[in-house]
Amino acid sequence: MNIALVRLTSLGDIILAMSSLQVIRRSLPECRITWVADQRFAEILDHHPDIQQVVKVDLKGLKSRRPLAAALAAAYRTLAAHGPFDAVIDLHGMIKSAAVATVLGGPRYGFSRTIRKESLAGLFYNHTIPVPLEEPATCRYATLAARSIGLEFRPSDLSPPQPYLFWGPEDGAATAGYFSGERRNIIFVVGTSAGYKNYPAEGFVQLAELLGENILVCHGSKHPRQSRGLSKS
């Protein structure tokens, strides 16, 4: 079975949506999985053994390319060349992700209207899947993926959880100096694109002092580091 998963952004949601991979692979060990993601975040998917192909798109960059019609046509041909698929599952639920799913070719599945981000995205789907909104995000993504290909899903299917992230030799060499063999290594992700979701730097500092372990601070740009005061902490 040839399956395409579409989750373009953001980094946190891509990681949460990766829960669906272990559910699919457990029931369909021979299937081929392609994941389509925005190129700004797609590298997090590299080296994952359950993904045979990562398609990295630059939808944001298309707006600045001229002539626009030619850029759109080239992007369309690139996406279409990867299909068709036996199932295209839109884990994003927006018009842009649904459009990408359509270009890939094959039966398209998405969240039902009550849960997807943009209701008009449903115009692109052949099938919509009802998913309980009260479930954790990992379960919602896994439920959609499983039911789209005819599998049953229970939250217990994610227990015990499998590793989400994998890396290559070059990644290990680049990060080796940051990790400790004597203390536990803990990563703080300190900033989001939405300011109201960010915790004060002082809170992270207090937590780090309480833990007393090797604390690593992960940030996507200079802004969260400088504006939150973490460079001084």
β-strand percent reads 15-25%
Largest beta-sheet characterization: 6 strands, parallel
Distance between the termini: 50 Å
Q: How many helix segments?
A: 9
Please name the CATH architecture of the largest domain.
3-Layer(aba) Sandwich
Number of domains: 2
Low-pLDDT regions = 227-233
pLDDT averaged residue by residue: 90
Strands ordered across the widest β-sheet:
3-2-1-4-5-6
CATH superfamily of the largest domain: Glycogen Phosphorylase B
Q: How many whole angstroms does the radius of gyration measure?
A: 19 Å
Shape: globular
SSE run? EHHEEHHEHEEHHEHEH
Descriptive account of the structure:
The protein folds into two domains: 2-158, Glycogen Phosphorylase B (Rossmann fold, 3-Layer(aba) Sandwich), CATH 3.40.50.2000; 170-232, no CATH class. The chain has helices at 11-17, 19-27, 59-62, 68-80, 95-104, 137-148, 169-175, 201-211, 222-227, and strands at 2-6, 32-38, 53-57, 87-90, 108-111, 127-129, 185-189, 214-218. It has 233 residues and is an alpha/beta fold.
List keywords for this structure.
16% strand, alpha/beta, two-stranded parallel sheet, Rossmann fold
Short structural description:
The strands form two sheets. A six-stranded parallel sheet has the order 3-2-1-4-5-6, sandwiched between helices.
